[in-house]
């Protein structure tokens, strides 16, 4: 009997242990990690805003020391954000001895008494720069960029790469201003008077002027607007104006003299044709923009349009010149809104 009772009690104990193993364990959620996480985020945000305030104070000190009262921002003039910018706000005589650095040109396009450039185009002494967006405010709308998107950051780039490129823009602008300073006083020492817009025009022309460059646009400028770019009474589409001011020649039809096809996407007849030519580069619009931002001819290899397998197969098809523009490309071009340059640039830089 003792043996039977011991065996029964042992079996009962084993069964109870087995049941306990299958029981779900109670998990108590501690609120402390959540509190610590929120506190850490709050501390980071506090540090970032304190850093921003310190940088703002330094910027104001540098502004007073270097530029005096010659910097006008939208916070200084009540209607500056709603009205077009005009150099006569700071220089009543026209500002022909000054230059403008801005990441937007549409606010200068209709300035009154524009002494340089076509009607409806920004003055020649405007230095267009790559738009910059401070990292903590990415995704928030701003009056300078309603979409709140960092136009200089593509989906394939890392944050470190983007930061390096933004530093490059500062170097580009500093280099342009040094060259402008040297050129201005070189003419001055010779007893010649040259305005800043004229000197900047000469500097831009030399970017593509040393080697003849012929450009053809695909999917960036509507065809009906390309035909109007020779009318001096009307503003040119932005991409065409950039290419011409840099010293390039823009054509609307395929020709063997073409050196660059600037395309928004693959799959068009122009891209297929250019990909079979030995001396023709198929580049994205970012190449043209970096040339315009830096006043230098940047390497095309960093901005080549990547072709898919289907496009590479299509390259083997022989197409004789002259090549008609495909209906698909024409429809897409006509439907695009070239007047809104910011939207075009955003779409290009994000692809």
Automatic annotation (TrEMBL):
Residues 212-305 form the BRCT domain. It comes from Leptocylindrus danicus. Its EC number is 3.1.3.16. Its main location: nucleus. It is an enzyme of class 3 (hydrolase). Residues 11-21 have a biased composition (Basic and acidic residues). PANTHER family: RNA POLYMERASE II CTD PHOSPHATASE (PTHR23081), RNA POLYMERASE II SUBUNIT A C-TERMINAL DOMAIN PHOSPHATASE (PTHR23081:SF36). GO terms for cellular component: nucleus. Residues 1-30, 320-342 are annotated as: Disordered. GO terms for molecular function: RNA polymerase II CTD heptapeptide repeat phosphatase activity. This is protein-serine/threonine phosphatase. It catalyses: O-phospho-L-seryl-[protein] + H2O = L-seryl-[protein] + phosphate; O-phospho-L-threonyl-[protein] + H2O = L-threonyl-[protein] + phosphate. Keywords: Hydrolase, Nucleus. Residues 331-342 have a biased composition (Acidic residues). Residues 1-10 have a biased composition (Polar residues).
């Amino acid at each position: 009997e003792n043996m039977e009772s011991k065996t029964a009690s042992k079996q009962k104990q084993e069964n109870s242990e087995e049941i306990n193993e299958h029981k779900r364990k109670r998990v108590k959620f501690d609120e402390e990690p959540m509190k610590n996480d929120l506190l850490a985020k709050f501390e980071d945000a506090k540090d970032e805003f304190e850093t921003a305030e310190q940088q703002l104070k330094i910027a104001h000190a540098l502004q007073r020391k270097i530029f005096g009262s010659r910097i006008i921002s939208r916070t200084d003039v009540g209607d500056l954000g709603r009205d077009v910018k005009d150099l006569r706000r700071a220089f009543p005589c026209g500002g022909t001895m000054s230059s403008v650095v801005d990441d937007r040109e549409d606010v200068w396009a209709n300035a009154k008494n524009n002494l340089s450039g076509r009607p409806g185009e920004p003055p020649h002494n405007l230095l267009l720069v790559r738009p910059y967006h401070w990292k903590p405010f990415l995704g928030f709308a701003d009056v300078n960029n309603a979409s709140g998107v960092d136009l200089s950051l593509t989906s394939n780039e890392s944050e470190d790469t983007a930061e390096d490129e933004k530093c490059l823009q500062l170097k580009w602008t500093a280099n342009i201003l040094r060259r402008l300073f040297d050129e201005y006083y070189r003419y001055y020492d010779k007893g010649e008077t040259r305005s800043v817009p004229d000197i900047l025009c000469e500097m831009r022309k030399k970017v593509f002027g040393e080697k003849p460059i012929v450009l053809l646009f695909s999917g960036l400028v509507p065809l009906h607007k390309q035909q109007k770019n020779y009318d001096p009474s009307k503003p040119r589409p932005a991409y065409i104006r950039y290419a011409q001011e840099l010293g390039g020649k823009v054509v609307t039809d395929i020709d063997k003299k073409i050196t660059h096809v600037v395309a928004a996407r693959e799959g068009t007849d122009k891209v297929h044709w250019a990909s079979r030519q030995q001396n023709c580069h198929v580049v994205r619009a970012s190449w043209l923009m970096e040339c315009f931002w830096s006043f230098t001819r940047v390497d095309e290899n960093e901005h080549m349009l990547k072709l898919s397998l289907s496009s590479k197969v299509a390259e083997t098809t022989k197409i004789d010149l002259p090549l008609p523009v495909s209906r698909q490309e024409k429809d897409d071009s006509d439907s695009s809104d070239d007047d809104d340059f910011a939207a075009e640039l955003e779409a290009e830089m994000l692809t």
